[in-house]
Structures are given as C-alpha cells and as structure tokens.
Design a protein that fits this description.
Number of strands of chain B: 14
Strand content of chain B: 15-25%
Strand content of chain A: 15-25%
Distance between the termini of chain A: 34 Å
CATH architecture of the largest domain in chain A: 2-Layer Sandwich
Strand order of the largest sheet of chain B: 1-3-2-4-13-6-5
Number of helices of chain B: 12
Low-confidence stretches of chain A: 1-19
CATH topology of the largest domain in chain B: D-Maltodextrin-Binding Protein, domain 2
Order of helices and strands of chain A: HHEEHEEEEEHHHEHEEHEEHEE
Bound molecules: adenosine-5'-diphosphate
CATH superfamily of the largest domain in chain A: Histidine kinase-like ATPase, C-terminal domain
Largest sheet of chain A: 5 strands, antiparallel
Number of domains of chain B: 2
Low-confidence stretches of chain B: 1-29
Helix content of chain B: 25-40%
Order of helices and strands of chain B: HEEHEHEHEEEHHEHHEHEHEEEHEH
Largest interface: A-B, 27 and 24 residues
Oligomer: heterodimer
Strand order of the largest sheet of chain A: 4-3-7-6-5
Mean pLDDT of chain A: 85
CATH class of the largest domain in chain A: Alpha Beta
Chain lengths: 486, 361
C-alpha cells in the first residue's frame, strides 16, 4: 500500500526551495511598470513638442503682428504732396519694435522699384512675382519672410498699396524687418519651460505608473498569502474575493483542490479498510487456535499450536505496525497541529499499558509534570510514545522497573522512558531507527523493526527529535522524545 | 536768421550713411579731425587704444588719465571730431579688418544707435551692467555714461529785474510781455547743421506740443542760430544774448568762471537728458581693453562711489530714476526709435517745418 500523493499545498518554507525547479518568465509587476513608464515617456515627449510648437507659433505670431503694426503705421504716414510721394515715419513705428526686444531694426520704402528711403540692400520679398498685375496682388495683406541679412537671421514683413498719382497708379511697398536674437532667447527660455513641464509630467506619471503596477499586482499577492497560509489538511475551496481576471485561475485551483480532497479521502478509506481486512481474520484465527489449544492434550500438538499462536501474534503485530507506519507516513506528510496536552496523553497511555507490564511484574512509574500544550498531532505522538514504552517493557526482564517522565526544557516538552533492560546492543543507535532494522538482543522478542522508526519520524515531523542514551545507572537505556513547544 | 544754412550738405551725408553698404565697403570717405592727443607714454610693450570722440579732449582727459594709472602699458590715441565726421570715419573703415578704431564716444545718440543697429559695433558684456539703469544700455552695444541736460541759459544781467522763469510756459509769458528785450538776443542750435541741436529739437517736438509754439515765438523775435554750445555760452556771458535755448548743461556747468554772469535753468516742465555713449567698434584690435575702458567710464558714471573725485568724472551725477516716475528729467531713450529721425525723408520734412517756423522774415 503506497502512501497517498502529497496532499498538502506548498508550505511557505517549502516554496523557497522550489525556484530551482520552477522557471520564472519575468516579473509581471516590472513588465507593467515598464510599459506604463514607457507610455508616460512617450506622452511627455509629445507634450513637450506640442507645447514647444504652440509656443513657437504664438511667439512668431505676436512678433509678426508687431512688425505688421509697425509697417502699417509707416504706410499710414505716406502722403502725396505736390505730386511727390513722401512719408513721415512715426517715432513709434520703430520704437515699438525696440520695446519688445533689443533687436536690430531695418526698413525700406520703395515706390515701384525706386528706393524712397531706408536700407537699399534689404532682401526683396520673392512673392508676389513681378509679372502678376498689381491689381491681382492682395492689397494691404502683409507677406512675411524669414531670411538672412548682415550676418543675422531676420524676420521681415512687406506691405504694399497702390497710390493714385498724376502719371498713373504706382505701388508703394514698405518692408520692416527685425533680427531674431530676442526671439531666439525667448524661444530658448520657452524650450526650457516646456522641457521642465515635460520632465515634471514624466516624473509624476512614472510615480503613478509604479504605484499602479504595485496596486494591480496586489490581488495576486493576497491570493498567494491566502493559499499558502492554509493548514496542511485545509482542502476547502478558496472563497476569497478576487478580481474578475483571476476568477478562472481560482476556479481551476478550486477544482484541483476538490479532486485532491476526493483522492485523499479515498486513500484514508483504503488504509482503514486494509487494516480492518487483515486484522479481523487474524484475530479470528488466533481465537480458534486458543480454543483448539485448550482441547488438545498431546504435548507436541500443544507446542506447535503455541508456535502458531506466536506466529499469528507476530504477523498481527507486524501488520499493525505496518499500518501504523503507513498511517504515520501519511499523517506526517499532512501534519495537522492542534494543542496536545502531553502529560495527560502520557498518563493515559501508561494506564493503558500497565496491565501488560504487570504480566511481567514490571513496575511502571509515571512522573508527569504539567507542561504547556504543544502544537501537534495527538494520535501520532501517542503512537510514538507507545512504541518506546512497548520496547522498554518488551526488552526488560521480569520484576524490573520502567520510569516514564514528562518535563519541559527551554524550548521543548520531553517524554523520557528509562528502563533496566541492559541497554542497546550497539552504540550506533541511528541504524536501529531505520526501517526493519533490529538489534542483536531482539532474538526471541516479537517485533518488526519499525517501532523506533515510527518514533523518530513522528518526532522529526513535529520538528523535534528522538534521543537514545544509556540510563544513569548503566543498567538500561534512556529513550527520550522532544517536541518543540512553539 | 543770421547763420548760414548747410542742410543739404548734411542731408547728403545721411544719404551716404544709408548707401555706403550698397556702393561698397571699400569706398574711402575722408574725414576731418579737429584735435588729436596721445595719452600715456609709449614703450615697446604698450598697446594702443584708438578712440574717436565728439567730447572735448580737455573734458575727458582726467577720466582717461585715471584709467591709465591702473593700466600703465596702455597708450590712448584720442581723436576729437564732430559727430558727423565721426560717422564718416567709422563708415570709411573696412569692417572686415581688425586694426582700426577701437571706440567711438559720442553725444549723438541717434548715430550711436545706428552704428550698433547696422552692425558696426561689438557686443560687450559689462561687469558694471548691474549698476546701470536699464535705459543706459542698448543691446550691450551702446553704453551711456553721462546724463547731460538740455538747459536754458539766461544772462544774469538781463534778468536782474525780471522774475526768474522756471518753465517753458514762464518763458513764453516773459517773452510775450517783454518782446523788445528779447528781440535778436535769443540763441539756439541750428538743427540743420548741429547733430545735437537736431536731436534736442526732435525730442522736444516729440515731448511737448508747446515746442512749436516756442519756436514760432523765437522766430518772431529774430532767433540767432549757433553751431555749438560753447559759442552760445560765450555770447550769453558777454551779454550778446539774453537767453540761449537747449544749451548742453554740462558745458555750461564746466565754465565755473562765468558763474556770475550766466544762469543755468533746467526747465521744470521737462528737461531732456542727452546720454553720452560709448560703443566698441567691430574694427577694434583690442576689444577686451576697449571693454575695460568702457567699464571704467561706466563705473565712474553709475558706480556706487560715483562721487569719488579721483576718477576725474567731469559730468554731474543726476539721480537715476526709473522711466515710470514723473520727474522733469527725461533721459532720451536709446533704441531704434531714434533712427526714425535719421530717415532721409523724415529729416527733410522736419527741418523744412523747423526752418519755416524759426525763419519768419
Ligand atoms: N528499551 C530497549 N532496550 C534495549 N534494546 C532496545 C530497546 N528498544 C529497542 N531496542 C533495540 O532496538 C532494536 C529496534 O527496535 P524496534 O525498532 O522497536 O524494533 P523491534 O520490533 O525489534 O523492537 C530492537 O531490535 C532492539 O535491539
């Protein structure tokens, strides 16, 4: 009969050992954070360029409108006196340009192609083309041009208007230009501000992104906690509320737990069934053998019947211990801890075994002190203590003495069984705690070599240990089981 | 109208100012230096700073000497000339070369602005900038280092029995009441020949409506026109003139010997302040040294210990006011606005109007 498949969900401690086997495909949180921060960076740069473009456009437009106002005020000062076109440039026309920035200012006024005043070498507006009739050009509409002049970048506006003179209509055109150093400085400042805005936006978004990533992953962490905190035998379905996206996962998990629960129940039933099926017929056979023993008188028949009863006892005990061992293996795999009152448990056990001891006139002395309840499986502990006590009685000579004590050390509750049975045959006692190993002094004693194995496995499952040492007097052995109190 | 007019010669010069770039930078225009003086003792290691200036050599000499005290290796070649000649001298130079004149110091604010605007000057980031009022610096190219008022000079003798006028309005009333006393004895700059006179006249015309009324009154009282402040001061002191209008206050104040004879009036309605300014020329071979010299001028003018007499600063320190206050002192604004009056057509139109107002007979 094989033990049931490991039914316990991973314990938190055990999870640390698994990554070697479980491959990680990267952190979901990191991936989410990276994607969010990445989109924040894209948005921030889009914002930066949008603000910059907008500011650039606005600054250009306001600069243009001042140039336009300047050119308009010059155009308005144009008059015809005595058939001559003349103009009186208002002070404000140029001073208004000086007010917005410390830039250099140039202007030119031409009548058709002849220069009236200003800088003759100022670049000429390429459009509108000369071939187009004057009337087709848009009158009074400014045309703007960015060009180079005298080693500087220049923004120029040109306005033209038709003047009715004696010799016919002539076109007067006015250009006002300003260097763009101030505008460039302003743009640099705007760029800095836009950059600060972009960086600030990015930083805030990145912080929010990290927070969001952390927050979105939280339900997973919570679920992990809920599942790993469960007791080893807790096979109830997960009822914790989870986000919609995680519902399928939890559904599958619950279905898996359910299948596990069913298969576990089946194995437990199977163990119980097997124990029942083996023990009951053996008991019947033994009863029959005893009845027969009473009926036969022939000494050789009686001897072989006694042999038979002994063999039956042996196999019954072996079957019992095998089942016990299987049960212990199964229960330790899914150790379920409940407060165990060790003193009461030992006292009850001693009472139960006293008749067996009295058969051999063995004095069974029990000294229990009150120790705090320890977390553990009462059935397992009882099984372990009984096996040790059994051994002590089994290997003791008649009319000897067995002492059982329960006491408390700094961390543990300890059960000690001291006998005067001559001690262990071998100083290396660890081998005797292996399965089916028996000592040289066991000849003639019923046993299967599983008793100490069960005791050790139970102690270790509880985080405690089995200790074997010679007794103080040297007349026997002192076997102790220690269980941690926490 | 006793003074010969040469408006067309000046107009021709301004035409040259505009067209010189077009006709070619190499064209050589001769210019006339009134006086030349070398400061400092030359030695093999010395560097030379060539300064073009409209300011009297004697007036600026102490300031130059105090500069040389801390820069013993420097020799300053100081050429004194009129503002129009200064303009010619700068324009005649090949702008691409770098062994021409280093500095131009001029009272002709409009021409200094034009030099900076048209690219004949160099930028100088002055360490003194923090001390200066904003209006005394244009583009870090033109640096003003004095405030000199356009004053009205009165003869103490002639005004002995008259109430002392305080404003132009007072003056107009006095002239209306006593026309005979003023007739033929009022002087002012000839705006057509004197750059400074033109600057004061145009700023007056911009500042106040009463300017043309005043000019008309002057015209009806036989105005005499002068080339320069010096001659007007002499004539007021000698009693040839009762009053001279728009005389450069700094020159009048400098004549301590005439304190008994002349009265300097800074009109209360408004007093235009001419800013003498320095620019570092593109052609400078020693721009850093020129910058140091400019800083020296600025420190003397605007520095905290401006009253320190050792600097040799020859001008009066007027309180520095922000433009918002309604003080009578109005510093003429450096900036492209000044170039409006250099416009050929604008200038011709203004002078035509001015002449027809002041020359009534
Ligand atoms: N109290 C004891 N005194 C002496 N020897 C003992 C005692 N308990 C166990 N042993 C030795 O340890 C061996 C293993 O013990 P155990 O696993 O209980 O198997 P068994 O069924 O043979 O008793 C025994 O065969 C015996 O040699």
């Amino acid at each position: 009969m094989s033990p049931a498949p490991n039914p316990a969900p991973q314990r938190p401690g055990a999870a640390a050992k698994t990554p070697g086997r479980l491959r990680s495909s990267g952190s979901l949180r990191r991936r989410l954070a990276l994607q969010l921060v990445g989109s924040a960076a894209i948005l921030a740069s889009v914002l930066f360029f949008a603000v910059l473009g907008f500011a650039r456009d606005l600054s250009q437009r306001s600069h243009d409108s001042i140039l336009f106002a300047s050119a308009t005020s010059i155009l308005d000062s144009v008059t015809v006196q005595g058939g001559e076109v003349t103009l009186d440039i208002p002070y404000a026309a140029l001073s208004m340009l000086g007010n917005i920035s410390d830039d250099r200012v140039f202007y030119r006024v031409t009548l058709d192609d002849t220069l009236l005043t200003g800088y003759p070498d100022l670049p000429v507006q390429a459009t509108p083309p000369k071939g187009v009739p004057i009337t087709d050009r848009r009158q009074g509409e400014p045309s703007f041009l960015t060009t180079r002049y005298r080693d500087s970048s220049l923004r120029m506006v040109t306005l033209s208007r038709l003047m009715a003179l004696q010799e016919g209509a002539r076109e007067i055109s006015i250009s006002v230009a300003q260097t763009r150093d101030g505008q460039a400085a302003e743009l640099a400042a705007l760029t800095r501000s836009a950059l600060q805005l972009g960086v600030g936006f990015f930083l805030i978004s990145a912080l929010l992104a990290l927070w969001t990533a952390q927050w979105s992953i939280r339900p997973l962490d919570v679920l992990t906690g809920v599942v790993s905190r469960r007791g080893p035998k807790d096979l109830r379905p997960v009822r914790h509320a989870v986000p919609t996206e995680m519902l399928p996962l939890v559904h599958s998990l619950n279905r898996f737990i359910e299948r596990l629960r069913i298969s576990l129940t089946r194995s437990e039933d199977f163990i119980a069934e097997a124990a029942h099926r083996v023990r009951t017929p053996l008991a019947t056979v033994r009863t029959q053998a005893e009845i027969t023993l009473r009926r036969v008188d022939k000494p050789e028949n009686r001897t072989s019947l006694r042999e038979m009863i002994r063999a039956i006892d042996e196999s019954s005990r072996a079957a019992g211990q095998l089942l016990d061992h299987a049960m212990v293996t199964f229960r330790t795999d899914s150790l379920e801890r409940k407060p165990v009152e060790l003193s009461a448990l030992v006292a009850e056990l001693v009472d139960r075994l006293r008749p067996v001891a009295e058969l051999k006139d063995i004095d069974l002395c029990c000294h229990t002190r009150n120790v705090p309840a320890l977390p553990g499986d009462a059935i397992l502990i009882q099984n372990a203590v009984r096996n040790i006590l059994d051994n002590a009685i089994k290997y003791s000579a008649a009319e000897s003495r067995v002492d059982v004590t329960v006491h408390q050390t700094a961390l543990d509750a300890v059960v000690t069984v001291t006998d005067a049975a001559g001690g262990f045959p071998d100083p290396d006692t660890t081998a005797l705690t292996e399965r089916f190993v028996r000592g040289s002094n066991s000849v003639g004693t019923i046993g299967s070599g599983l008793g100490l194995t069960i005791a050790r496995e139970v102690a270790e499952a509880h985080g405690g240990q089995l200790d074997i040492s010679p007794s103080d007097t040297g007349a026997g052995a002192c076997v102790s089981l220690a269980f941690p109190l926490q | 109208m006793r003074f010969s007019r040469v408006p067309f010669a000046i107009a021709a010069l301004f035409w040259a100012v505009f067209s010189i770039k077009a006709t070619g930078a190499g064209s050589d225009v001769g210019y006339e230096v009134e006086a030349q003086r070398q400061f400092g003792t030359p030695n093999p290691a010395s560097v030379e700073l060539q300064i073009l200036s409209t300011t009297d050599t004697a007036l600026l000499a102490p300031l130059i000497e105090s500069f040389l005290q801390s820069h013993s290796d420097v020799v300053i070649d100081y050429s004194e000339l009129s503002s129009a000649e200064l303009m010619k001298a700068v324009l005649s130079q090949d702008t691409t070369s770098s062994d021409g004149f280093d500095l131009a110091i001029s009272s002709a604010m409009d021409l200094q602005v034009k030099l900076a605007n048209d690219g004949f000057t160099r930028k100088h980031s002055s360490g003194v900038r923090a001390l200066m009022p904003g209006w005394s610096n244009w583009r870090d190219h033109v640096f003003a280092f004095s405030q000199e008022p356009a004053t009205i000079l009165l003869s103490r003798a002639a005004f002995a029995d008259l109430p002392q006028p305080k404003s132009r309005q007072n003056l107009i009333e006095l002239m209306r009441r006593h026309p005979d006393r003023f007739r033929g004895r009022i002087g002012t700059y000839d705006a057509g020949t004197s750059g400074l006179g033109y600057l004061f006249a145009t700023q007056d015309a911009r500042s106040s409506d009463s300017f043309w009324r005043l000019m008309e009154l002057f015209g009806s009282l036989d105005l005499r026109l002068y080339c320069c402040s010096g001659a007007m001061i002499e004539d007021v002191a000698s009693g040839k003139l009762v009053m001279a209008y728009n005389v450069l206050g700094s020159y009048a104040q400098a004549r301590r010997d005439l304190v008994e004879k002349i009265l300097i009036l800074e009109p209360e309605d408004y007093t235009n302040m001419m800013l003498r300014s320095a620019v570092i020329l593109k052609t400078s071979s020693e721009p850093d040294l020129a910058g140091l010299f400019v800083d020296h001028l600025l420190e003397a003018a605007w520095g905290d210990d401006a009253d320190d007499l050792t600097s040799g600063y020859p001008f009066r320190h007027y309180p520095v006011r922000s433009s918002g206050e309604s003080a009578p002192y109005r510093p003429i604004q450096l900036g492209p606005g000044l170039m409006v009056y250099l416009d050929r057509l604008k200038r011709a139109k203004f002078l035509r109007e001015w002449h027809s107002t002041v020359e009534q007979n």
